[in-house]
Amino acid sequence: MTDKELKEYFSCIEENFNLAVISNNVDKIKECITEDWVLVDSQGGIIPQERFFQIVEKGLLSHSTMTKEILRVKIYGEIALVTGRGKNTATWQGQNIEADEWITDVYKKENEKWLCVLTHLTPVKNS
């Protein structure tokens, strides 16, 4: 695949992941990730999926929009690194929040399906 084709292919995978997250449905999110997926962010550090799911299930965190512009995709055998810029809106403990972040998702191919192993977020600095 060309770089353009890889970006288009993984843009579809990322969009499915986005839709799962904004559904705020843990079962739908689980369809996009491995059993040991973790979220890494600048405020919470390494957040295991169990903790992330508890926060979502309790309604402490609820996403309403999520988009990603895929800027780079590199595949290393059964591992893919997908890097882009993401924006989302959500509610955190009843407060509306917006995020503009650099995102790297690490994917692993399992049974012919790409599943996310790790999501790393870095806030975009305002100039």
Automatic annotation (TrEMBL):
Pfam families found in the cross-reference section: DUF4440
Domain DUF4440: 13-115
InterPro entries according to UniProt: DUF4440, NTF2-like_dom_sf
Name of the featured protein: DUF4440 domain-containing protein
